[in-house]
Amino acid sequence: MKNPRDIIKRPIISEKSSDLMAANTYVFEVDKRANKTEIKLAVQDIFKVKVEKVNTLIVPAKPKRYGRYSGYTSEWKKAIVSLSKDSKPLEFFETV
Fold it and tell me: Count of CB atoms within 10 A of residue 87's CB?
């Protein structure tokens, strides 16, 4: 089994994700090779909560320019994690 901290890279904090926090739903950047079951177990292990549902999507690479040089950003995976009704809210999102 993989280390849960290798699966969950960082939380995504934006206007849209902060609106989802009212519905007990959180957004994370995760390892691109992780599946929904691994993400669910990692969130439950790190935060000691009960996960109800996990949705995943791959954010495609976007073209970027820096002066005359052009390239692409990296492709990454996003996980939208819904917690059960009786779960406590995650601590590090309280200050947002």
Answer: 16
